[in-house]
Protein 1
Amino acid sequence: MALENPPGSAFLLAAVGAHAAARFAERVAELDLTPPQIGLLGLIAASPGQSQQAVAHVLGMPPSRLVGLVDALADRGLVERRRNPTDRRLHALHITDAGQAALGKIATIGREHDDALCRSLDSSERETLRTFLSRIAADQGLRPGIHPGYRTV
Amino acid sequence: MALENPPGSAFLLAAVGAHAAARFAERVAELDLTPPQIGLLGLIAASPGQSQQAVAHVLGMPPSRLVGLVDALADRGLVERRRNPTDRRLHALHITDAGQAALGKIATIGREHDDALCRSLDSSERETLRTFLSRIAADQGLRPGIHPGYRTV
DNA sequence: TATTGTTATACTCTATAACTATA
DNA sequence: TATAGTTATAGAGTATAACAATA
């Protein structure tokens, strides 16, 4: 889209945001994890014990898609499914110690990523940027910490 | 990715950017155009007469992918392929009057989209946001007006 | 009969590589 | 032999819908 001169805020946001997402995906590939898997891991850590249906609903994705993501994390021992004894249909999702350790590494990578992306802004400018982006996110109905890319479009 | 509290700049950028891109795609669907088609249309308008190979290289996509995009725009009469008489292998890409008209509508939609996305910022804040984003884009090697989503990852 | 999780199927998007026409 | 453009094939990712287990 080479349309406006200079480009508008929305185009810049989309372009820089796509770049940020691509660079983050590159960095975490080192851990053999994808951004969707990491988003799920973070959500399970933040609110453990939820059913797959509940988590899928929060992320705005079909439950069938969640199965594969949980499989990948469970195969590696980062999360576990615990059957509810009173209603054996439910699989409560919990993070493991290995999962917590992985989240620690991810947080470090995230900070490095943040610094590299915003190295052309000083610390006060970064704060201003975060303020503006948070305000837009809230105004646009984005839930904090949930990437809208999960949603059905 | 619900990892940091509060979320870092990179995550906010990726989330807000994905939201911006999704809303823009919704708006231009009314014209029966997709964002990649629009990006190509804008590039052809900005530098007409280039070969498909050259355009594919600028956008960072395989030439085979460009064929389908050009087909879609040419079928609708928005662009045209002109064979180079001295080297008949080359197809120079040009925008048509209908293509220019479509770009006009797209620009209007883009401004509306920009206003809706940034309605929680005043005009001076929007200017600051554009400044910061432009600086990040330049620092990160993003070429002005080219969406990095075209690139091979 | 309703609900949770899973699997099966089909569809979209894309890259790679084969092909053609021109040089 | 080399290059521009095109077509064919195959792979990834995803949604929809069918299915099995449990209530």
Note: Residues 27 and 144 of chain B are 22 Å apart (CA to CA).
Protein 2
Amino acid sequence: MTTNSGVPEVVVDRLPQYLRALSQLESSGIDVISSQQLGELLQVTPAQIRKDLSYFGRFGKQGRGYSISHLLGRLRNILGLDQTWNVAVIGVGRLGRSIISYPGFQPEGFRVVCAFDSDSGVVGQVAGGLTVYDFADYAEVAKRENVQIAIVAVPANVAQAVIDDLVAAGVKSILNYAPKSALTPADVRIRNVDPVVSLQSMTYYLSAR
Amino acid sequence: MTTNSGVPEVVVDRLPQYLRALSQLESSGIDVISSQQLGELLQVTPAQIRKDLSYFGRFGKQGRGYSISHLLGRLRNILGLDQTWNVAVIGVGRLGRSIISYPGFQPEGFRVVCAFDSDSGVVGQVAGGLTVYDFADYAEVAKRENVQIAIVAVPANVAQAVIDDLVAAGVKSILNYAPKSALTPADVRIRNVDPVVSLQSMTYYLSAR
DNA sequence: AATTGATTGTAAATAGATTCACAAACAGGG
DNA sequence: CCCTGTTTGTGAATCTATTTACAATCAATT
Ligand SMILES: NC(=O)c1ccc[n+]([C@@H]2O[C@H](COP(=O)([O-])OP(=O)(O)OC[C@H]3O[C@@H](n4cnc5c(N)ncnc54)[C@H](O)[C@@H]3O)[C@@H](O)[C@H]2O)c1
Ligand SMILES: NC(=O)c1ccc[n+]([C@@H]2O[C@H](COP(=O)([O-])OP(=O)(O)OC[C@H]3O[C@@H](n4cnc5c(N)ncnc54)[C@H](O)[C@@H]3O)[C@@H](O)[C@H]2O)c1
């Protein structure tokens, strides 16, 4: 699947891995790395790293390798991470609250700017410093707050309906925590975070066969 | 990558999706489905579903489709989900606690049977009904409790060390929540749950290009 | 300034995954 | 009991991804 321009989706999905490894290398003081070394670190062949990067340009130097800070900058730019992204959380229950106060998003440029629920007992409350809006007002609030990404943390049985509403409101990227694989139009990107699915594929290999 | 027997890893990774969709169909009272219909529901081609299933046997009937309850049984068996799996959680901080009390594991046959931390302020506490053990005693306790799967919820900077210890103790399946891609031997399966990585690949498509 | 050793970027080859396409099988009429 | 309309299971074809292999390039050294 290339889906968009000429870059295969698998390649785009590997870039954040490279980014993370390079970040760590940078903060440990190293400033040049070869595809060989990076590959060892990530369990990926050096050729794959070079080929992946070659979709976007020529970032290395023959005989030396890649300047980590330079490559980091380029990867951030390619992935659109040289800007801040505004995120909305839908569903302010146990999970929604922990997402709102998860400190891992902010440093990576993702800012939770508003939260929504449909329960009148929750709407109007303050959670993690954010006032909870009525999900019925999503389109209006999201526009005002300039939201580009929605995180869905509602019960599975309403997930599809919520996602339909989000799509109708123009959202193009959704991170879905509900254990439900939801349907979206081809131009809307959805990623599922589901630990049970991950466990279920590992047990295949654990089972005697 | 086939990694083990003749079944490609991508195929195994799709089975839990099929399982989940079929479960929902079953509870909504339907009892037969064609690859065509299931494919529409999951945004997958019917041929792919049929080919995936054909790695494991012949579960359908020409002219009719698949008996949902029968196929569910077969998929559960193939994935090793007709047994209960004992899980250990490593790192009893904010995340570790929510994992321990997450109600989504139990119904799918994953039981969190013990929890570990290295902080003496946490060891001995009770969290979600479980006494927290010292991670130094992992091998012993895990053996006694018959643990087959470990969930890692420790800070990124200690994740590799913790995972090395788990591997040394004989763990073959790890679900890692730390934002760190860790190295493991080829016979140890690791899956990462990382919402930031998912977001970072979506922003690629959001960015003007 | 030539030589060495390392490493990139990529074209071509290989391997792997998906889709096509159709014979075989089955249920439900008539 | 024989059509008719479906839908499976799967070999072959196609498409996609990965790996190989090497010329081009660069820094360091003599
Ligand atoms: N993927 C994961 O790691 C993970 C972890 C925990 C929970 N979950 C899932 O996340 C979801 C939420 O879990 P939770 O424990 O927070 O549940 P919860 O019941 O505590 O919270 C759900 C919230 O969604 C709200 N809600 C319901 N319908 C809504 C609608 N139509 N619009 C807006 N808000 C609505 C409810 O009012 C409630 O506040 C569940 O689907 C659960 O299975 C996933
Ligand atoms: N993937 C996700 O969705 C997600 C969400 C939240 C947090 N996280 C990550 O999960 C990890 C934990 O987050 P948290 O908020 O619970 O942090 P936390 O600080 O609250 O908890 C971490 C716990 O790990 C324990 N620990 C430290 N070193 C240990 C060791 N060597 N052995 C055993 N236990 C040890 C600490 O004592 C602490 O109790 C972090 O890496 C965080 O980035 C991931």
Note: The two ends of chain B are 32 Å apart (CA to CA).
